[in-house]
Amino acid sequence: MLLIESLPGPNACRMLAHRERDTIMMTFEERRWLRRRTNTASGRAIALALPTGTRLSPGAIIAVEPDWYLQVEAAPEPVLAVDPESSESAIRVAFEVGNHHFPLALNGTRILVPDDTAMTQLLTRLGVRWERCHAVFDPIGHGHSHDD
Known about the structure:
Layout: E1 2-4, H1 10-13, E2 20-26, H2 28-32, E3 35-39, E4 45-49, E5 61-64, E6 68-74, E7 76-83, H3 87-99, E8 105-107, E9 110-114, H4 117-126, E10 129-136
Parallel strand pairs: 1-4, 2-6
Antiparallel strand pairs: 3-4, 5-6, 7-9, 7-10, 8-9
Helix pairs in contact: 3-4
């Protein structure tokens, strides 16, 4: 079992051309809580023990081995997709979602929020059109590093 306790540096990530790509599918929550055992798409056993506060973005390289590397793929997950009728409505939804300390993502003109009872109640109260669906949830403002 491969134990991943830190992310590879930029130099390691530049040398992937002749290595096999393996992936791990992760939801937004899984990309935030990085202590678990799982298997990659190719069946390799791995254990994640990344430092608290680490957040992985879709596409992140999390391991580089002599013959292969491991890349994060975002798993589609249950979300609520909001179709605001105007920019004012979109701003109101974004404000209210943030005021409830929930993340949100943008998907074209749609606003995506977690499929949660509090969010369904909020969106219903706001009177906006929304529907349940499955989509990649990659919230704005997450996965950004101030070290860049």
